[in-house]
């Protein structure tokens, strides 16, 4: 059984797999339009909404900010291995590889960007990285339910395996002479990004086929990893669309 906290996460699961939602608990004090719409949506799907006090909701969500709504739902059977994802695709894979991202809010936002861009999976090492915590799931706004998060024991070895499968790996690096707009991002692709400030580790960087920089026009030196993920993934989608339009 899984706990979903917040309006985005609960609505997303109701849209995707309403039969997996057992019941929804809502703050008895929430009588606003947003709460009313969620109650009506759940009622149409046959999901019971139970009103409780805020203290009970906070206990159910383990301290995670819940916006006055929590749902109990069945665990979804998400792919656990990269191979499981690749074998189901009917288009060239688009993967996001995260190296050393330890902030759950950043991970959640990266998952949200990956979902928006239609990425097929987010891959990260088990060590020195954040897992799918309640905070990461909450920030993902339901994306953790649609984009497989694959934690691997050895990231460099996984990247080598991806290359053996014909997947082109591009790493984001501030010192790279070419920008992401000049790099080849079409076709089977994995985009690798490191934690803000630290960037990619040496072995991860060496495992990439090429490196590309993010053009910075202002005074800040770098972007948040989730923002950079969105830019890279959407540029990859743009290049795919331009290629198909030729």
Describe this structure in words.
It is built from 9 helices and 10 strands. The protein has 246 residues and is α/β, with parallel strands linked by helices. It has 2 domains: 72 residues, 60s Ribosomal Protein L30, Chain: A (2-Layer Sandwich); 164 residues, SPOUT methyltransferase, trefoil knot domain (Alpha/beta knot, 3-Layer(aba) Sandwich). The chain has a 6-stranded parallel β-sheet, with helices on both faces. A 4-stranded mixed β-sheet has the order 1-4-2-3. Helix 5 runs parallel beside helix 9. The longest helix has 21 residues. The model has no long low-confidence stretch (mean pLDDT 91).
The CATH architecture of the largest domain can be named as 3-Layer(aba) Sandwich
Percent of residues in β-strands: 15-25%
**Radius of gyration from the CA trace?**
20 Å
Q: What is the element string, with H for helices and E for strands?
A: EHEHEHEHEHEHEHEEHEH
Helical content class:
25-40%
Q: Strands of the largest sheet, in order across it?
A: 7-6-5-9-8-10
Task: Enumerate how many helices there are, as a single number.
Answer: 9
The overall average pLDDT, rounded, is 91
**CATH C-level class of the largest domain:** Alpha Beta
Largest sheet: 6 strands, parallel
Shape field: elongated
Strand segment tally: 10
Distance between the termini: 48 Å
Low-confidence stretches: none
Quickly give the structural class: alpha/beta
According to CATH, what is the topology of the largest domain?
Alpha/beta knot
CATH homologous superfamily caption of the largest domain? SPOUT methyltransferase, trefoil knot domain
List the domain count as a whole number: 2
